[in-house]
Structure formats: structure tokens, C-alpha cells
Amino acid sequence: RAFGCCVIYCYLLSCSRCVSSYSVTVQESYAHPFDQVYYSSCSDILKWFKCTKHRVSYRVAYRRGQKTMYRRKSQCCQGFYENGEICAPHCTESCVHGRCTAPNTCQCEPGWGGNNCSSACDSTHWGPHCSNRCQCVNGALCNPISGACVCSRGFRGWRCELQCEPGSYGHGCQQKCQCQNAAQCHHMSGECRCSPGYMGAFCEEHCPAGKHGPQCEERCSCHNEAVCHHVTGECSCPPGWTVTK
Ligand SMILES: *[C@@H]1O[C@H](CO)[C@@H](O)[C@H](O)[C@H]1NC(C)=O
């Protein structure tokens, strides 16, 4: 019954249109002929000067008729199926974390990959189809959806490429260093590395008597109860004594 189905390329199209015909029964009017009799004057005395005459006349009549109608018809292309008003693409495997955007083609949500979008991105990839490489360094975690880096403790910067600024340490560099007396503070643990002459967890104490220098490991060489400087080891003599070289 299809009439003149127009062949539209289905390439990149979800449906082709064609025109089909169908017939309907209608009442149609027409001019129906009939024999009309009328009188006319004539010279025939036997007919009392009135003669019968005939002529073909028409009157409106009705009859059943067939009328051909045309309608547009959409037909889904191969790989598509009718879904309400539209032709929707069909994916043989259902798209688990994504959408079917073309026949057998899943468009994955960020953070998911694989043919049917069922595999989560590994730790070094992110985005739709896990197609972007993570840029994070220094052991940072990469957000599989946005690619944002979550720095491990002691690091900062969008790629976590920077150490915490001096004076701060830990996760997000949120903790304040407690080290004193010009000690160095470890960017991850906050552990203090004392400058020469100091000791204690926060380097808050001088070296014990008789010791000086880095890690208070050097032995003082002062005599006669002279006090040894905790940093340099220099002896300060009690009254009455002098330094001998
Ligand atoms: C998605 O694909 C994986 C591996 O290709 C398969 O094991 C799984 O059954 C699929 N899931 C669906 C819902 O099609």
C-alpha cells in the first residue's frame, strides 16, 4: 500500500519519511440526467395546439465514491526504534552509567568508562569514558568525575606539586607548626628539626649542660666550671679564669 516511499539516506538520520496512500468512501454529488417532458404550442389541432416535447435535463444526485488520500509516515532507520514521537537509538547492551546516544554507542557519565559505562575510572584517569589523565602528583588522589586533586598531607597546589608553606603542615596544610628557635618543621608530619643548640619535641630547650651544637651531640671542652654556650660551645669563664687556646 506504501506509495512513493521516498528513500532518504538514513546516514546520520534517525528516521526516514515516506508517503502512503489510503482510500476513503465519500458521498459525492453529480448531475444526474433525466427525461423532462414539457408542452409547447403547436399547430396540431388534434392535440389542441399543445404538443408534448422531451428534453434531457439534470438534477443533483449523490453517489458513493472512493477518494484517495495521502499521509506522511515516519519509519525509523536501522538501529533506531519508535519511542513515542521519536526514533530513539538502540543499544544492544544497556548503558549502565550513561546514555545511548547512537546505535550501540553509550555516552558515559563522568567517572565511568567501558562499552556499557559499567567500569569506574581507575585512579589515574577521570571524566566521561575515563578519557582524561590525572595530573595529580605526590601521591594525591584524583576525583574521577572532575579530575580535581585531593592532596596527601604536606602538599598543596592544583596538582599537589608544592610542599606546604613554611610554618604549616599536614592535610591541606591546615596545621600550624609548633617548632621554636628557628627549627625546621616537616611539611607532612610537623616534626621539628632543631637548629644547633636546641632540643625537645618543639626545640624549646637548650642543650643540657656539657653539650652543644647540632642535635646537642658535641661535648663541651670547658674547664673549671666554665659555662659552655649551647650553640657554639664557647666557654664563658667564671671570674678569675681566662680561655687558653
Ligand atoms: C557491561 O559490560 C560488562 C563487561 O563488558 C559485562 O560484564 C556486563 O554484564 C555488562 N552489563 C550490562 C548491564 O550489559
From TrEMBL:
Belongs to the MEGF family. Residues 1-89 form the EMI domain. Its main location: membrane. It comes from the Eukaryota. This is Multiple epidermal growth factor-like domains protein 10. Residues 131-161, 169-204 form the EGF-like domain. It is found in: Cell membrane. The keyword tRNA-binding does not apply. It comes from Gouania willdenowi (Blunt-snouted clingfish). InterPro entries: EGF, EGF_PEAR1L-like, EMI_domain, LE_dom, MEGF_diff_regulators. It is a single-pass membrane protein. Keywords: Cell membrane, Disulfide bond, EGF-like domain, Glycoprotein, Membrane, Repeat, Signal, Transmembrane, Transmembrane helix. One of its GO terms (cellular component) is plasma membrane.
